[in-house]
Write a structure and sequence with these properties.
This protein has 4 helices and no strands. By secondary structure, the protein is mainly α. The protein starts with a helix and ends in a 24-residue tail after the last helix.
Length: about 130
């Protein structure tokens, strides 16, 4: 990433191309951030430890991002501009798709885990004295 910034600074690459490349990096980061979380929730059959507010707020951002593109296309009567910035469009769609998956996992599929997770540390019993100490 630093190389592309240097290339843009020394006029080897146009700044607009640099911004497009960084938007592709953002799209890739979204994928590698969300796929493991969906898989981990599926594997554990639980969303324990996952803050659902993250998904709820992020889906609002995705909706507003797509809405902004629709409003701009409507105002300029240029519906081809919807695909003029493919990474913004894909990021909005992917964000909303993954957030819907997270919401379904949290509120529908794994609302009540099948079994409680075992604690990492066992609770000490006041009646028992450990003779190994």
């Amino acid at each position: 990433m630093a190389e592309t910034g240097v290339l843009g600074a020394v006029d080897v690459m146009e700044w607009l191309d640099l911004l497009y490349y960084t938007s592709y990096v953002k799209l890739f980061i979204t994928l590698i951030r969300c796929i493991p979380q969906v898989y981990m929730n599926f594997g554990r059959k639980s969303t324990r430890g996952f803050n659902i507010w993250f998904a709820l707020l992020e889906i609002i951002g995705g909706v507003f991002s797509i809405l902004q593109m629709v409003l701009i296309a409507y105002n300029h009567d240029d519906w081809d501009s919807m695909v003029g910035n493919p990474t913004k469009f894909l990021h909005g769609i992917l964000t909303m798709l993954f957030d819907v998956v997270f919401i379904v996992q949290h509120y529908c599929l794994y609302r009540h885990p099948l079994s409680e997770e075992k604690p990492l540390l066992k609770k000490a019993n006041a009646d028992k004295v450990d003779s190994r100490c």
